[in-house]
Amino acid sequence: MASTRAGGDGDRVPSDAPLLSDLMPWSTAPLRLGRSWVLAPDAASLTARWDRLVRAGGAEQEALFGPTRARTPHSAVPALPGQAAGTGRFAREPGRCPEPLRVLHGPFDEQWLLPDHRLIDAARPELWRVADAHQVFAVEQGYVPGAAGPALLVSALLPDGTSPAGRPGRIRPLHRRPGGLEPNVTPGLTALLSARHGQEVTPEEVLAWAVAAAVPSPRGPVVPLAADPGVWSAGVELGRLMTGIQLRGAHGGVRHRLPGGRRPYVRATVPDRPGSLAYDPAEEALSLGTGRIAPVPAGAWDFVVGGVRILELWFERRTGPGEAPEPGTLAAIRPPGWRREWTSELLDLITVLALLAELEPRREQLLTDRLLTGPTLTRDELYEAGVLPVPAAARRPASVLDHHEEGPEGQFALI
């Protein structure tokens, strides 16, 4: 058995285990929006912000826009792949408001984005080209020494990759081309794993294993690879379940729910302006001002990513003083109070977190009892098998030669 690193998270993983970047080589940095007003927890605020910006002109529009080195109202940029927003300079030809797009804002927070390339500093177009009904995005979480929380999450929605704490990680699509084609898995890896375990190992299973077994590190998630077929199968099964919960029924999957007697319900209506969020562990009740939701399992309340409690972060992004924008800015255009759909979204989030928390003992057992006491495939073995080093082309996005896109000022572009 390989030696292990000492101290913190490192003592739970073999010292010669591969990184996630060794297994899923193509990645992008997180999106860099450049201006907060293009993202919101509700779609109506985005259309109102757009209308306000379009009505303004000259210096007022420039100030509301929030120019940066990458974007101003006069920037000429190509369209985002798959989106219908205009490509004329915004100050001259804003066009109609693009339909807000549902995206994942950091861990577990589904929000809305104006999908207009003229408004986003670094939108990572290569991600948009492969964001379709077949795609699953693996999202590395920011590393915080000693902090609890998962190293890797997944999403069917386009993620922005932001991190509640620590330096954001990378975004790694499962597929390199639209339509679920060309897996983003290091060439030769699935063949090696298939031979080792005596059964076909698919790219989807590689991702499922990573979701279950990834451990945070300063270099990015470390993913020990079980050499024992039984341990591998158990980890893949667990990772599939964790992935299915996070995908929330996308791609024709099952939307997982808590058992009937454990499902959270609204016991008292959330007020128009809930001023605080509190949890009563004895009653398993979540209070939003005078509103009350129960039962809320303790695992959902205590669920953290990068050491940050997810339910508190989600609530603060909708109501907290830390999110209050400067008056007169576009970001200040917000709902006047609590929106009804937020209650439904909160119930869904509680369910997701509770289900993942219930699986944590199984994940801990996989990491501590099985991977540290059983054989693993080391990076040296991957080198000996010719899987590593990763070919340079595998770290670059695939060319989509038949993908037509509109360039700046309506010009034709072929990618």
Structure description:
The chain has 415 residues and is an alpha+beta fold. The chain has two domains: 8-257 and 369-414, no CATH class; 260-356, no CATH class. The protein is 29% helix and 14% strand. It contains eleven helices and 18 strands. The protein has helices at residues 20-23, 43-55, 58-65, 125-129, 189-197, 203-213, 229-247, 298-301, 310-319, 340-371, 379-384; strands spanning 39-40, 101-104, 110-113, 137-140, 152-155, 171-173, 175-177, 181-183, 225-226, 265-268, 277-280, 285-288, 291-294, 304-305, 308-309, 376-377, 404-406, 412-414. The strands form seven sheets. A four-stranded antiparallel sheet has the order 10-13-12-11, with no helix packed on it. A hairpin with a 5-residue loop joins strand 2 (101-104) and strand 3 (110-113). Helix 6 (203-213) crosses helix 7 and helix 7 (229-247) runs antiparallel to helix 10 (340-371). The model is unreliable at 1-10 (pLDDT under 50).
Please summarize what this structure is:
With 415 residues, the chain is α+β, with helices and mostly antiparallel strands. Helices cover 29% and strands 14% of the residues.
Estimated share of beta-strand residues: 5-15%
Mean of pLDDT: 92
Helix content: 25-40%
Query: How much is the radius of gyration in Å?
Result: 23 Å
Unreliable residue runs: 1-10
Secondary structure: number of strands: 18
How many domain units?
A: 2
Give the terminus-to-terminus CA distance. Answer: 47 Å
H/E series, N to C? HEHHEEHEEEEEHHEHEEEEHEEHHEHEE
Given the C-alpha coordinates, what overall shape results? globular
Number of helices: 11
